[in-house]
Amino acid sequence: MKKAICYTLFLGLVVLSACSRTNSTGTTAAEKRAGYQVLFDGTDLDQWVGNKTDYYIEGRDLVIDPKRGGQGNLYTKDEYSDFIYRFEFQLTPGANNGLGIRTPLEGDAAYVGTEIQILDNDAEKYKDLKEYQYHGSAYGIIPAKRGYLKPVGEWNTEEVYVKGSKIKVTLNGTVILDGDLAEASKNGTADHKDHPGLERTSGHIGFLGHGDVLRFRNIRVLDLTKQ
């Protein structure tokens, strides 16, 4: 009898644990209550516009393969101002991509919008980059802390919080960037380049390919202007 009770309790805990986590295609119950919108559930790209040639669905993952002959980036259909954006990503060796925020559909999103770097920090070819070019950094503006990426081939979880000029990036449960874009650039940007996108208060969110294969999944967003 005790064994049966223990086994039942064990199964219950397993179910509760599973329910508390985000699955590979949706949101947790807490996220649903909070109002998160699923942008990619592994079945279609209806919430996206742009390069749907290089960005495609494979095994319920969103994959980018630049060798497929497409051009440009993949952007959310809608624009966002203040938001929390959550996603998972899997790097390949030497992979380089980016997350554009508050960006228009045309132009270099790192400058006409703002880019959060997605990068295999440990690749030999990136050993001499500037500190503001590594993963999680607001490209050219604010550097992120390093050392929190999982080994290449494993899935990473990331959250990007944007409200006004404040930005926070959390990678695998650790805050790697917490700063103010306006404050960081008031005397010029770290890369000494023009970033007109810093003046934008809304725009699209997008994945910015740089010629490498990556996978993404479980993409959702919370529009903070509706809270």
TrEMBL record:
Start and end residues of each 3-keto-alpha-glucoside-1,2-lyase/3-keto-2-hydroxy-glucal hydratase domain: 35-221
Keywords in alphabetical order: Signal
InterPro entries linked: AL/BT2_dom (IPR010496)
Signal peptide: 1-20
One of the record's GO molecular function terms: hydrolase activity
Hydrolase is among the record's keywords: no
Protein name: 3-keto-alpha-glucoside-1,2-lyase/3-keto-2-hydroxy-glucal hydratase domain-containing protein
Source species: Persicitalea jodogahamensis
Top-level taxonomy: Bacteria, Pseudomonadati, Bacteroidota, Cytophagia, Cytophagales
